[in-house]
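Section 3.1: Structural characterization of target chains.
Under the original work plan, the team committed to producing a structural model for every single-chain target entering the pipeline before any wet-lab resources were allocated. The record below documents one such target. The sequence was received from the expression subgroup and is listed exactly as submitted; it comprises 411 residues.
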Amino acid sequence: MTFYNGNQPGGVPGNLPAPYYWWECGAMFGSLLDYYHYTGDDQYNDIVTEGMLFQVGPDNDYMTPNQTKTEGNDDQGFWGLAAMSAAEQKFPNPPSDKPQWLALAQAVFNTQALRWDTQYCNGGLRWQIFSFNTGYDYKNTISNGVFFNLGARLALYTGNQTYADWAEKAWDWTAAVGMMSQDYHFYDGAHTTLNCTDVNKQQWTYNSGVYLLGAANMYNLTNGSDVWRDRINNILNTTNGFFFPPTVPNVMVEVACEPFNTCDTDNWSFKAYLARWMAATTKMAPWTYDVIMEKLRASAAAAALQCSGGSSGTLCGMKWTDGAKYDGTTGVGQQMSALEVIQSLLISKVAGPVTNSTGGTSKGDPSAGSGGTFDPTLPQGAIQKKDRVGAGFLTTLIIVSGIGSIWWMLA
């Protein structure tokens, strides 16, 4: 938490200072939600609640006006995933006069469903929400993966088939457009200007992770469908072979940038999400436990050795394969990644996610956010009638400083 100043005088709750983008604070809160879930230590809960509620925006859908120039579908989606985790983990509910965790997750999903774009590439979400932002002509895998993941989890939590239908649609589109290969490699994205024929085959850990956990939720929703079981196994097999290379067995590597020293501020955090979603998958698909934990245990031990930097001797590097040789980098992403992989070793000690029918207490709103957030630069005619009909149907329905103190998790 030494990197976060949103709870300090002059700071903005739910914002990290430069060079971090807004989305990463939502992702960081996801790590702190996990921290509370795994350990029961509530010292950060008030900060998480304050930040997550401060950033909801005027329509309670994480469309914050002061982020218009940078907010993409993936950015909004990470805040929605944090709200979803809060509901699933029975994180203390906000005051009754504030938006509730489940309703916030539903609001994010509903606004994104309205942005499903069939004009180019036969579907999919664009990376950016507004046309004046760089990347509006790009449909990226993580935006669609977060949408799939959130839809699958909402379907399981609420029992509402509409979310499941959207999740299936997002999965099918990802495969059909070539952002997921036949052997379950997940690529970065493609441009609308070329009708998504120019798939960028760069691979990031979080793309595999977001689809893995989404598939695990669909497996549960479908009462153990062989189709979803096979998809889980295939994603896991490819992930384990690609992001855990044999040079240092079972230790996670951000293959696209880590070996070349080209990772940027965002990239440093990606391993946190793969670790988070692999661990969560063991609750949804228990047969994966042994295979997943073999990877997470080795990665956690290696990550802990990297947490020896700075004057405090607790700042974490990112090259876990270097062992105790601190790589000299530091930041929110590095701390978050180490925290997530280390605390994931406690997954067998905690209960799985709850649903509305298994003890969930977060209040939902199926129509939350369903007014949509359209690009104000587009003419009204750009929103097709069939999209409005579909929308109408839908609406009716940290970082812990001193990470060395958790070495005991490795015992």
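The mean pLDDT is 91.
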